[in-house]
Amino acid sequence: MRFSIKNIFYLILVLCVFSFRIVAENDDHVTVGIDEKLGAHFSGDLVFTNSTGQKVKLSEVLTKPTLLAFVYYECPGICNNTLTELAWVVDRVDLEPGEDFQVLTISIDHDESYELAAKSKNDYVTSLKRKFPKDAWTFLVADSLTVKKVTSEAGFYFKKVGDEYRHAGALITVSPERKISRYIFGSQYNQFDVKMALLDAKAGKTNPTVAKLLQFCFSYDPEGRSYSLNITRIVGTIMLISVGIFFAFLVLKKKKKN
Asked: Where are the domains positioned within the chain?
């Protein structure tokens, strides 16, 4: 039997589906990480404090397709990478900031002040090379109940360990109706992926977990800003599946003999 490149690609995708499902079965309970809430809506009446010290409702902030990042401003780890990469990608995405999209950063640390939010905003907005309206990137802080509410609605779970927070790195695209449209995992982003996610948010579309599936099967190269097939992960998973099938075959064969 001859296999075309197209057939081989479909075969790889099928194997990815089975591999991803096996991994996902052991990842139902999330304590630190992200449990996708695609299609869910954020509560518009949640009140935050912005970087100027003003109280604002979420409904007043989420009025355009939005790139949302949960971080904390004094984070010594992944948050800096997330915000630096976020600044990199919004500097290059082929959409008009303030018109086609906006950016929202919410601190998960309820002890952080709006002064810290103001400092972070100044650091990242002034690092942008393109013309970027200051009101197109909003930095917010809030009390513990509000933080818990908004992160729970996003399926974003974190845990405080000592003086630091353990949490995942991701962007969430949100529609002008406050509907969660897509999750972009990791702390390095591709401008084309971000553009497509924002266009989906504008149209009110939700992107299924195929994004997770592709991330399981493909590795992102931050230097080349491109994806490549993760052969090691796929082959390793296929080997585990094959071993499982082999042992199942031996058990069934033994039962038949008895």
From this structure: 5-26+228-257, 37-208
